[in-house]
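thought: fold this chain, then report.
action: predict
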Amino acid sequence: MKSDTPPEHYSSSLHPKLPPASGAPAPSTTFQGPDLPPPPTTSVPYPPGPGNSPPAGQTEPPAASSSIHTPAQTSGGQFHDDLDSPIIPSRLRKKGRGWSAVFNPKVKRVLDVSLVHTLKHESIVCCVRFSADGEYLATGCFRTAQIYDTTTGIKTCVFADESAGEAGDMYIRSVCFSPDGKYLATGAEDKQIRIWDIEKKCIHKVFDGHRQEIYSLDFSSDGKLLVSGSGDATVRIWGMVDGSSRVLTIHDVDPIYNDAGITSVAISPNDRLALADSLASPNNQLVATGSLDTVVRIWDIGTGMLIESLRGHRDSIYSVAFTPNGKGLVSGSLDKTLKYWDISGLVTKHKEQAVKGKKSSQCIMNFLGHTDYVLSVAVSHDDQWIVSGSKDCGVQFWDSHTGTMQCVLQGFKNSGTKFNF
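observation:
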């Protein structure tokens, strides 16, 4: 993938007479930026939050029942109410040009952070994703996806499909490298998934089937499957070889929110699961989804069966991520919190013990500290850190074992972009 030549703007050759769009329009005013899905149906104001009132005749949604799960540990993280406060000693504050990091004075500082690159874009960046080897970073924005060399910060290429219609916004909402680094999958507002051949710099495949925008993509660890989540409230599992598609449909939509649009998908890390004890699916993997109706759902990727629905968030879920051993799951929500779910009970010797309706998983930690919607979560490969991005323009690092916040990064001037390690 590395190249010594200057980056080029690559387009599909389906309709070369149509030039790629230059520049981007102002984001739509019907919702708060392209990083947020469009509003659900009129049953609930969107996005829910402070200052928004329910429509006439409708009451506020009740707090999620705590009886479903055992009491969770609640982290303390609101040390940074005033990041410029003189109370915070200089040894716990690090500043650079246009950014700062503040470390929690209540815990031992064991992490250091420095700004390596600032990657300029011509439009709003909706999503970012590292390659498996960490050598490249992909970003999605208006009509284009970019790949950067993480060592040099140089843009190596830009992908744009010239056959895409010119009308309306067409933001790239999700990007994902294949495990071998040969392909980049992009999901867009035009409801299509494009698989780009990075070396040949052209479209390899197009997956068409979703009826609304594509918000999230994830490859299986062997690269044979691609999972997509869409605002149409379905998950699709695509075969990378034959282009086959299996649809997972939600039938237990939360009646209060009445919209189960999928905002995030994640496949469990197959190589880290205890395979002898895992569910008896063909590839021993699970798919987790986050939805607008506040529910985290876990599916058997082999059978397509819904195994468990996790309830506890009080607002729409925007991001889910498995821990490296596959036995934990982290979710981020518009309720301004993260939750850590113990799903080790799903790894069982007897598949019949993990059926829909069995509440074997529980929330064991709540992460409190963000002051606005949590839009993205990720877990480091060594399972030491959980990282969250928020509409409060901060990125926070949390100890994955204790739930305590280590530090908060500031420097963004807009909502947190979706990111993954």
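thought: worth noting. The longest strand covers residues 202-208.
final: tokens above.
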